[in-house]
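Obj: model holo form, ligand = adenosine-5'-diphosphate.
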Amino acid sequence: MDSGVIQKALHYIQPLFEKDATGHDLDHMKRVARWSRELALREGADPTLAELAGLLHDVDDAKLSQNPDASRRERREKLLEWGLSDAQVEEIEQAIETVSFRKGKVPASTLGKVLQDADRLDAMGAVGIARTFAFGGAKGQMIHSDDPGAGTSVQHFHDKLLHLLHLMNTDSGRQEAEHRHETMTAFLNEFNREYYALGGKSDESK
Ligand code: ADP
Ligand code: NI
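Output (holo structure tokens):
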């Protein structure tokens, strides 16, 4: 594997994600890569493969790529071009294949587990809160509503984000997730306190 492989991957993904405003920007990839590397070191997976997988995990995401199959093929070609072996490329592809929350898959390899944990951590805590409202704003979604069917950003915490703690794969990931979970529950408590202060909605006082 080339020594500059991380730099090459960064260079490759830059134009793909630099304009994103839905929480999938370049910084998401870098944060996931850093945590993926850190968790790999603590859990006994290859840290460079973990970092690479973090940088590349959303390249073929159907929300972001016009043609996921072509994106996946190009990613494979790049990895081989940067000097990874067929087995290493396969390991990364397998890990990325199981990362998505929606598909609900549990990764088989330690690499897959740390990558999924790193991606989940980035949806939690203060960064997760920021991403949720950025995503909601980009999609024209309301912040909050008393109608549980309104599909608001606050509802997304209950639908997904508050469940992530119990879905973490690794002890190291769970340790960080506990802190981030508390940050989210503190935020929601405070949100409700402010939102419903002084007797709730203004039309009720009429
Ligand atoms: P990823 O592809 O990185 O696994 P997602 O696409 O599921 O994650 O979500 C990206 C970010 O947008 C996350 O922070 C997530 O919480 C947020 N997000 C996804 N769906 C919604 C939604 N319906 N409302 C608000 N935020 C959302
Ligand atoms: Ni992601």
